Structure formats: structure tokens, C-alpha cells
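[Archive record]
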Amino acid sequence: MAKQARALQTRRSIVDAAASVFAEFGYERAATSEILRRANVTKGAMYFHFPSKESLAQAIMDEQTGLVSVEPGLSSVQSIIDITHQFAHGLRHDAIARAGTRLSIEGVFFNGTHPWGDWFDLTTRLLTEGQEQGEVLPQVVARESAEFIVATFTGVQLVSEAINRRADLHARVAVMWRHILPSVAHPATIARLRPEGATDPAAVTATARAGARSEAETGAGAEAETEAGAEAEVGAGTV
């Protein structure tokens, strides 16, 4: 168990280091040597968990949507609003969010999977539920609106990053929603919604991040048991 725990910690260190490098340099300019330096691990350890830079980037892309959570007790539309504020918080405080967003903007595709697909799917599902609950206007096409919301958020966060390193991102996201809501939600629903968010994004993202890490580590647990032997076979390169 001690070896497995160490292996999971090694994997975590690699992912976090890779996220910081991808966020700073992008995919093409991200150097494996810099990831190794920041993670303080051997080449053998990294290549056991991640056989390529592509697989590392994919792990980050897979993990980024785990930074948000649909909180119980919220309406479907309020949930979408709060998710954008959660991810806005992540962009300011979490390298996984920044790296995943940069990789998506750069158009890094793996195995034919669209980098925005998970965000489109989640937003579409919540808009569809909102229509069924009478919150979302009947003429709204859920998928089209979902893609528009994700695209608008992406533009808003890019402008915020360029102007003041996202210091005003939450305020800009609230303004975004004040413009979007009249075109998707019933007037009576809008009166109950909070464009600035109804939950604390810091608390929610902390819980969601812990859950995402646990899920990733559970998937890697079986492989981790054999890491020590694999490292020796691959070769213990130094940083």
C-alpha cells in the first residue's frame, strides 16, 4: 500500500507539473524536460504513467471538467450560471483549468475528440432539463445555445486575462449572464436567478477538485502497484 500511495503521489505531481507547463507555454512549446524538473521525478516514472506528452495533455483535458459541480437544490439555469463562476474561479487559482482551457483554445485534439465536447454536453443537458421544468423558453435550441454560452464565456475570460490577468472575471461573467438570460429564460425565472452566482465558487471547486483527483487516482491505482518494477525497466533517468 505504501508503494501504491507513493506511485499515486508521483502521478499527481506529474499532472500538476504538466498543467503548469502547458498553461504557461502551450502544447507545442511545452518541454518534457521542464515537466520533469517541476515534478521532480525521473523519466522512468513519467513514462510509466504517461507514455507521451499527448497522453499527459489528455489527462489534463479529462480532469478539467471535474473542477465544477452541479450543486443540489439549484435550478438548471442557476446551475449553468454557477458552473461558469466555478470555472472562472478555477482559471484564477488552478493550473488544471488554465492548462485545459489553453489546450482547448489551441485546438489540441486527441483521438478525434473535440476539446469543448464535455462543456457543450453538460450545458446542453442542463438547458434541456430547464425546458422540461419550464425555466427555459420553448423556442430555445439547447445545443445551439449551449455552444453559444461556452463560446461567450471563453471570449469573456480571454479579454479578462488580457486586461488584468482575470482579476475582474467574476464581474464580467455576471455581466455576460445579464445579457444572455433574457434570450434563454422565462421572465419569471430571471427574477429568481442570480447572475453573480448563488454558491461560493471557492468552496465548490475545492470539493469538486478533490473528487476529480480521487477519481483519477482510483483509475490509476491498479497500474501504480507495478510502478517500481516498471521504472527499473524503462530506466531511471535523472532530472
Remarks:
- Confidence is low (pLDDT under 50) at residues 227-239.
